[in-house]
Design a protein that fits this description.
Distance between the termini: 104 Å
Shape: elongated
Helix content: 25-40%
Structural class: mainly alpha
Oligomer: single chain
Strand order of the largest sheet: 1-2
Largest sheet: 2 strands, antiparallel
Strand content: under 5%
C-alpha cells in the first residue's frame, strides 16, 4: 500500500520495522499512526475504506512483521482485494530493489509493475506519481485506458520508459523495443503503438539514443532534459556567395576555383595543394634581332605621321626582356631615348600601354604603387592587387626599384599614406617574406584554422593581428589547406568570417588574399570583367592587369573569363575599347586584330 501523496514508500528500515526507530525518521508522538488508530491521511483525514486495522503478524526474517490480511471489504480499493506487501512506512518491500532483479507479484494474478530504477515509482494505484512520459504527447499513466478493478485483477499495462533510451509500450499488443533497463538484454525495436513511425533516437545497448545521419556540417546537440534526449537540431549549412562575386553563369557550375570555396568533410592531403599551371599569351619572339627591330621602329616614327601598326607589330609581340634589349640597342644605334621618342609620337590610352610595356616589370610595379599613393587620395585597389598577387622576388624587386626611382622606401610611403590594421597588412605584404617554399603541413593547417576561429567568430571582437600574421606569412598552398580546415571546423567559409569580422579596406585586403590563394587566375578574370562592365572603362586597371599578366598566366585568365562570364575576353575588349588601343590589347592577349 502506498501512503497519500507519494506512492514510493519509505526507505527500508532496520529490524524494528516502525518509523522513528531509525535516525532521521519522525519519532512517535501525537499525530503519528498507532496500531489502534487505523491508517490516517496527513491531516487526520480517514483513509479510504476506513477501518483497516494496523498490520501485525508473525515476525519475518530480519525482524519485520508481515502484514495481516484484513477481512473482506475492509479496505476501500475495490473491496475485498488483497493488498500488496509492505503497506505501511518502514516495512521492507519483498520486490527486488534494483534493476534487473526479479520482482514477485504482490498478489496472485497481479501484473508486474514497470521496470524500476532508483527513485522510480512502483505504486499501481490512483494518485501515485507516475514516471515521466518518454516522448512528447505520450501519456505517463498506465491506467488511462483501464478501470482500476481491471488493473488490479487482470494486470496493469506497462507504463512509459523509466529512463532515457528504454522504451516500454503502453498499448496492448505493442512489441517491446530495446532493453527495458540499463544493462538488460536488448529487445527487438518496435513502434510504441501499431502503425507508428520509429522515434528519431535509435536505441543502443547502453540505453541512450544515437542521432540519425545529418547533412554534412557540424550539428548542435542540446543538453539532455530530465525526461531524456530530444532530437538534435542540425546547423544550417552556409552558402558561399561573396558580395563581390558576379552573378554566376552556367559556365561557373563546373568551375573549380582553387581547392574549395565551400566547407568540405573530405580528408585533405598535402598532395592536393599544388601550384597551378601558368602560361602567358605573350611568348618570346623567334627569330629575334634587336637591331632589325630598332630600324623598323625608327622608320615608323620618322617624318610626318606615325606608323602605329609597325609599333604594335614589334612591341606588342616581344616579351619584356626583348623589349629592354631593343631599348638599349635603339640608344646605342641612334643616340636617342626610345621612350622619349614614343612619348612624342603617341597619345591617349595607346601611349599608356606602350610606355607600360617599355618599363621592366619591377619598375612598372613600383610606378603603379607610387601612382596609387601620389597626390590627394589613395588608390587602395591598386596597392592591394599588386601586393597580394606578386611573389616574394617580384615584391622585393619592386621595393628596390621604388627606392631607386623615388628616393625613399616603399614602406615609408605606405606608412605615410595608410593607417591602422590596413596599413599594417600592406606593410606585411610589402616585405616580401611569405614562406613560398613551405611544405603543406595538415596539422599546422588545422591549428591555424582553429587560431583564426578563436581570433574571430568564436569571441566578441576580432584579433586582426592574428589574421594578419597567418594570411601574410603562409604560402598559398598552405593557406588553401588552412581555409579548407576552417570550413570543416566551423561549417562556414573563411570569406564569410572575414566579411563578418572586418570592414573597409582591411576587409577588402583580406578577402583579396583569400581570392588570390584560392585561384589567382579567377581573381584577375574578375578584375578584367569589372574594369569593362557597365558604363565607362577603368583603363588603369585594364592596362595594368593585361601588361603585368600577359607573360605570366593570361592563358588561364582567358579560359576562366569565358567560363565565368560567358563571353571571351577578346569580345569584351573589342566592345569596350577602340583604335590602336584596342589592337595592342588584343595583341598582348594573343588575339589577332
Amino acid at each position: 500500500m502506498s501512503f497519500y501523496g507519494g506512492g514510493r514508500g519509505y526507505l527500508q528500515q532496520p529490524s524494528t520495522g516502525y518509523p522513528g526507530a531509525a535516525p532521521g525518521y519522525p519519532q512517535a508522538g501525537p499525530g503519528m499512526p498507532m496500531p489502534d488508530q487505523g491508517s490516517p491521511y496527513p491531516g487526520q483525514a480517514p483513509y479510504p475504506g476506513a477501518g483497516a486495522p494496523y498490520p501485525t503478524g508473525p515476525t519475518a526474517p530480519g525482524g519485520l512483521p508481515y502484514p495481516v490480511q484484513p477481512p473482506s471489504a475492509a479496505i476501500g480499493f475495490g473491496g475485498g482485494i488483497p493488498q500488496p506487501a509492505a503497506p505501511y512506512p518502514g516495512a521492507s518491500q519483498p520486490a527486488a530493489p534494483y534493476p534487473g532483479a526479479s520482482q514477485p507479484a504482490p498478489y496472485p494474478g497481479a501484473a508486474q509493475p514497470a521496470a524500476h530504477y532508483p527513485g522510480a515509482s512502483s505504486s499501481p494505484y490512483q494518485g501515485a506519481a507516475q514516471p515521466a512520459a518518454p516522448y512528447p504527447g505520450a501519456s505517463s499513466s498506465p491506467y488511462h485506458t483501464q478501470g482500476l478493478h481491471q488493473v488490479l485483477t487482470q494486470g496493469a499495462a506497462q507504463p512509459a520508459a523509466p529512463y532515457p533510451g528504454a522504451s516500454s509500450s503502453p498499448y496492448a499488443g505493442a512489441a517491446q523495443p530495446a532493453a527495458p533497463y540499463p544493462g538488460g538484454p536488448p529487445q527487438p525495436s518496435a513502434s510504441p503503438y501499431p502503425g507508428a513511425q520509429q522515434p528519431y533516437m535509435a536505441n543502443t545497448a547502453g540505453g541512450y539514443g544515437t542521432p540519425s545521419a545529418l547533412p554534412p556540417g557540424p550539428a548542435t546537440y542540446s543538453a539532455p532534459p530530465s525526461g531524456g534526449y530530444h532530437t538534435p537540431v542540425p546547423r544550417q549549412q552556409p552558402q558561399y556567395n561573396p558580395q563581390s562575386q558576379p552573378a554566376p553563369t552556367a559556365g561557373m557550375q563546373n568551375l573549380n576555383i582553387g581547392s574549395s570555396n565551400k566547407p568540405s568533410s573530405q580528408v585533405a592531403t598535402p598532395s592536393q595543394y599544388k601550384k597551378p599551371l601558368e602560361q602567358g599569351t605573350l611568348k618570346p619572339h623567334s627569330p629575334f634581332n634587336a637591331e632589325d627591330d630598332c630600324q623598323k621602329l625608327r622608320k615608323a616614327m620618322k617624318g610626318i605621321g606615325t606608323d602605329e601598326k609597325a609599333i604594335i607589330d614589334i612591341l606588342g609581340h616581344r616579351i619584356g626582356k626583348q623589349r629592354q634589349e631593343i631599348k638599349l640597342m635603339f640608344k646605342t644605334m641612334f643616340g636617342k631615348n626610345l621612350v622619349n621618342d614614343l612619348k612624342s609620337e603617341l597619345g591617349g590610352k595607346f601611349e599608356d600601354v606602350v610606355l607600360a610595356l617599355m618599363m621592366p616589370a619591377d619598375e612598372y610595379d613600383a610606378y603603379e604603387l607610387n601612382r596609387a599613393m601620389r597626390g590627394a587620395g589613395t588608390d587602395e585597389d591598386a596597392m592591394i592587387e599588386i601586393l597580394t598577387s606578386r611573389s616574394n622576388a617580384e615584391i622585393q624587386a619592386a621595393s628596390t626599384a621604388y627606392k631607386k626611382l623615388y628616393g625613399h622606401t616603399l614602406e615609408s610611403d605606405i606608412k605615410g599614406d595608410t593607417s591602422g590594421h590596413f596599413g599594417r597588412l600592406m606593410i606585411s605584404l610589402a616585405t616580401g617574406g611569405r614562406m613560398e617554399n613551405q611544405a603543406v603541413d595538415m596539422n599546422k593547417a588545422t591549428m591555424d584554422a582553429k587560431a583564426l576561429y578563436d581570433a574571430g567568430e568564436k569571441k566578441w571582437g576580432t584579433d586582426e593581428s592574428r589574421f594578419n600574421a597567418i594570411l601574410a606569412s603562409q604560402s598559398y598552398e598552405q593557406l588553401r589547406a588552412v581555409f579548407d580546415e576552417y570550413g570543416k571546423i566551423t561549417g562556414r567559409t573563411i570569406e564569410k568570417a572575414i566579411e563578418g569580422e572586418m570592414s573597409g579596406y582591411l576587409e577588402k585586403g583580406m578577402l583579396t588574399i583569400v581570392k588570390v590563394v584560392r585561384n589567382k587566375d579567377a581573381y584577375f578574370a574578375e578584375k578584367l570583367y569589372k574594369s569593362m562592365k557597365g558604363l565607362g572603362t577603368d583603363d588603369k586597371t585594364l592596362i595594368r592587369v593585361i601588361v603585368s599578366r600577359c607573360e605570366v598566366d593570361m592563358v588561364q585568365i582567358k579560359q576562366l573569363f569565358m567560363q565565368i562570364y560567358g563571353k571571351t575576353l577578346a569580345k569584351f575588349i573589342t566592345d569596350d575599347t577602340s583604335g590602336h588601343y584596342k589592337r595592342i590589347l588584343l595583341s598582348l592577349t594573343g588575339e589577332t586584330y
